[in-house]
Design a protein that fits this description.
371 residues; alpha+beta; 3 domains; 13 helices
Amino acid sequence: MAICSKVGFPDLFITYTCNPNWLEIQRTLLPINLKPPDKPDIIARFFKTKFDNLLANVTKKGVLGKVLAYMYTIEFQKRGLPHAHLLIFLHPSNKYLAPEYIDKIIFAEVPDPVKQPKLYGLVKNHMVHGSCGMANPKCSCMTNGRCSKYYPKKFQDVTLVHQDGYLAYRRRDNDFTIEKNGIMLHSDHVVPHNPYLLMKISAVIVPSAGGREGNYDEIKQYLDCRYVSPSEACWRIFSYSIHGRKPAVGRLFFHLEGENSIYYKDFEQIGNVLLKVSVTESMFTAWFVANQVYDEAKLLTYGQLVSKFVYVKRNRCWRPRKRGYTIGRLIWVPPTTGELYYMWMLLIVKKGPTSYDRLKNIKGFKHATFR
């Protein structure tokens, strides 16, 4: 949410699923006569390599436009294959504000098998849903006699943006078909995809233009349990990241005067504990000092400070940032905390205070409490 408050809503949502038939995986397992489920470590390693390649193409090379920020999470299917969900925040000059721009990066049609044979084969192998419905009522996607993914989709000549932010992608009723399980399927069964990424990565890549709002009751949709697949176990053993984001989000702590946290070791003498500098100095009080030393700091709120300054823990002080960029986020406190909550409300808007008393000073009048 800190990233959204800074750069706005995400523009693209990409789902990327591992393909056990990747040539690299098959080439590794064939000499030892094993199948992909037998080597979850190989699955994890190759997916990590492929996902890093995808991330570099999207964020660094900008194949979908200039990227301001991104975040991703890695999940694991019940059958053991890892897949990633990637949110992309585009630069204002590269946003896809009109349906005709969306049609340039997201396709949901059967390609020409003569002019684009490679793309046609990839779409046939990875990007076709079904067959389901009346042709295959026992398909896993069928719920109460209907496809839970709402296939087949409607044919339409242009992409439509609904009021709730969801998109109905362009699906022209062309003459191209794909045979699957003995049934001829048209563009109404094609999953949205980006041709460039599909041909480069050769896996299930489902991009979608970002919606704006929607309410989901996740408590009713999921079970309260945990399942760890072999691929996930290997992923964690290799210490691969489950989540990632850029720019980084730094949590900023704060406290009332004289109520900062004090850390000490077991059996440490209380006298020695009270002599520690950390008893009177903290990251938050160092902000007051920075406002006295640096003119630039006076122009920033506490949450904005981390974008221009970095906290040096060893010296307990804020120094001007030389490189990188971080978005600040104040830790949330509930209204039941009283004074701490009202101080949090002031910290969101107040710039440049040099002490607790200055923080209470509003329009030249010093209030007795933060409330």
